[in-house]
Amino acid sequence: MATQTSSKQRLETAAASAPAIELRGINKHFGAVHANRDIDLIVRRGTVHGIVGENGAGKSTLMSILYGFYTADSGQILVNGQPHAITDSRHALALGIGMVHQHFMLVENFSVLENVVLGAEDSPLLGKTLAHARAQLKRLATDYGLEVDPDAIIEDLSVGQQQRVEILKALYRGAEILILDEPTGVLTPAEADHLFRILRTLRDEGKTILLITHKLREIMAITDEVSVMRQGAMVKTLVTAQTSPPELAEAMVGRRVLLRVEKGPAAPGKVMLEVQNLVVTDDFGIPRVKDISFSVRAGEIVGIAGVSGNGQSELLEAISGMRDQLLGTVMLNGEPLSLRGDDGAARARLAGLAHVPEDRQRMGLVTVFQEWENSILGYHHEYGSGLGLDIAKAKAEAKERIAKFDIRPANSDLKTANFSGGNQQKIVLAREMEGNPDVLIVGQPTRGVDIGAIEFIHNQIIKMRDAGKAILLVSVELDEIRSLSDRILVLFDGHIVGEADPATADEGELGLLMAGVTKDGHAPDAGPGTVPAHETLIEKNLTEMSPQDNKDKSGLDE
Amino acid sequence: MSVRVPLPRWVDVALLPILNVVLAFLIGGLIVLSVGQNPLEAVGYMIYGAFGYGSGFGYTLYYTTDFIFAGLAVSLAFHAGMFNIGPEGQAYVAGLGVIIVALLLNGLHWALMFPLMITAGGLFGAFWAFIPGYLQAKRGSHIVITTILFNFIAISLMGYVITKILKPAGVDSDESAPIQAISRVPQLREFFALFKNSPVNLTFLLAIVALFFVYWLVWRTKFGYAMRTLGRNPTAARYAGISSSRMIMTTMALSGALAAMVAVNNVGGVQGRLILNFVAGAGFVGVAVAFMGKAHPVGVALASLLFGALYQGGQELAFSMPGITREMIVTIQALVILFTGAMGDMLRIPLEKLFARWQRTAGGG
């Protein structure tokens, strides 16, 4: 392929000059944790260099050292061949290292221009700085295809555009080396493609890009070289063109991983969960779920695909009784659920609905509790008769679940915050699945979860389906939706805009639906998940599609 | 963005509070020194006054009793995520419940009167705390603001009730009619001669029971579990189906009932009547006690004893060293509250750094 040869050429030319970044023997401890051990890394100038690894492998720590958030306990950082002791992010910027964070560091009610100059003002009076920045932005826009209206207010921009502002901020400050931390997590496939086009242009113009991601597909698509980290150590650095996703996955986890979910055909039974004309508003009274109806049968997994912020959170919270619905009915096993009041979730649970929340740390766990305490959250009434809490029983069951779900470390007395993301998710899953529910609703089951645990979690969900449970799955990971679901509903702007069969639907089609573009501009004709006829969806430029909020995604930092 | 390594538990629960108290005393010592007095001598008098002889120790325990109840009241609410600043007012209003039942049944044997006082006082205190709880749960009024305001309302209300209604004709001071001796809570000196003429009474034993009760309630019951869930993560509580409104109202009522026992101690146990402003700041000390005691009954017990000793030792000091005025003693007490309560975490970060360095040299070297 053409890109492969050019990638090879790039690596060859880059090898001639000093590497943009060279790390030698970097070590970093946090207390007893050895977060980075003897890291050596060479990032060649003018290439895209990927860094992959599971959560807790030390990627973020390493980047934070490079960006001056932390100082390494030992080791050397060379930028363009010169050793530097980077003390803070200002210093890093002065050396030409810029960072685009996973959670944008933008002032929401400032304009693009104001955000770009923030912290880089030349004088107390802004006029000159702003004029200079405006000219610079224009130049960057034409040079790199980074077009954003400088006078637009950040909160009016789509997530993809906000990310471009972050990149512009770094470039405006003279960044030659860009670090991007999980940049595609919040983007639609189309927006992600656009980002990759920008990154390629930047690379062709001589910038160096360090891409941190857990999506192996992205690594394969855009990087020239890829480094794999595991348990704080650098396992290997590979030329992307000469490796494959299974090889990378194995290097990350340290054992062979099945990247595909294996499941048999579904055997749907009677309707267990039925949602009728549901309308849900957010905390500010703005409708987020707009007249949605669908049903889930026993023994099937219905996946809700969509870009984050299109009403998924509110949908899950309303069905599980965490958020008051404005209108509509939720039927469980033919009986309407009474979800009103601040203890609606207790009644939902009593009726046989279990909920794996999309944000386990904010909703599903009390992280300061011991593991066994979280193992009974929501089910604590079942432990002990009378007032007393039957701690012995709770601990005994927690231990059983630890064994059954391979939760590590296997210590029910350990504080939950000390478990890794994947193990925390297993604690939640074990609790919700072992309650033997009729309906299981699952939000973002593998967000921030290691590859090894993903495999396990997916298998558990399939197992629940095969045991005849009705499962509603919501995920922003399209791959996950496609591999697990028996039926896919696409959510856009609070409406279900289409239904697809995961076996036949292609990614482009789903991607368009996720961006709100339906065939011929009409809602597709589908079964239970149809859009009300009066809805006509406006076809817009894809890149201007605006998933409303990315504020709800806090708390996924481990 | 810096990673903080948590302190070892013994440092957190023992070393840090001790360092805070030492720091407060060092600065208090400088104040004593600045007026030309000997700080070591002053500390000696304080310790002697608080623990050195039976009557002094009895007084220390009497103050400790008040502080345990107020501290537990604040601690309990704290576990549900609420900051109850109102034990002062709750205890004051509870005094009304205690005196009503005591005067209505005046002459009843204390063995019957004591539980009645506890019940009536508890109900009044619970009611006074329930209202801010209700306002927070149903109307979203912040509990910190409402409980502070309810302290003021309590002062005005009780002032009116005592001076205009309860005060018998022909009595000059602002107080109710007295409770007969047989109905009063018995003094511990009647069982232990050691306590001589000090006011420590049976309510002290009730305080010990309350310490165990609060431990059991918070850590050994379903209610306590739900309460801690709400206090630590309200979103998770909603997820778990724990009704925050019900929990807030119930917990505040229980908190108020605990604060109410200050009134049983004072009205039923010491004064034998309801006098104006009898709480005298014990409710506010409870806030400092709960902070210093990390809202744990063991911590509350120790912190209460410290403050009890400070109060009683301070009186002794003022009596024995005329060069040190009452105001100066209040200043020293305030310093302890300041260092253990408001600035209790001042030394945390330096200590964390120190321990992180020790660990690294020990583990990584």
Keywords:
heterodimer, A: 558 residues, Rossmann fold, six-stranded mixed β-sheet, 18 helices, disordered C terminus, B: 365 residues, mainly alpha, globular
Task: Tell me what the structure shows.
The complex is a heterodimer of chains A (558) and B (365). Chain A is α/β, with parallel strands linked by helices and 558 residues long. Chain A has three domains: 2-96 and 176-252, Rossmann fold; 106-174, no CATH class; 271-361 and 437-551, 3-Layer(aba) Sandwich (Rossmann fold), CATH 3.40.50.300. Helix content of chain A is 33%, strand content 23%. In chain A, strand 14 (325-332) and strand 15 (335-336) form a beta hairpin. In chain A, helix 15 packs parallel to helix 16 (451-466). The longest helix of chain A is centred in the N-terminal third of the chain and has 19 residues, at 126-144. The two termini of chain A are 39 Å apart. Chain B is mainly alpha-helical and 365 residues long. Chain B has a domain at 65-300. Chain B is built from 14 helices and no strands. Chain B has helices at residues 9-34, 39-52, 54-79, 87-104, 110-139, 143-166, 203-220, 222-232, 234-240, 244-271, 282-292, 297-320, 326-342, 348-364. The A-B interface holds A 29-32, 64, 69-70, 73, 320-322, 341-349, 355, 357, 362-369, 373, 376-378, 380-381, 383-384, 387-389, 391 and B 1-3, 5, 220-226, 228-229, 232-233, 235-236, 238-246, 356, 359-360, 363-364.
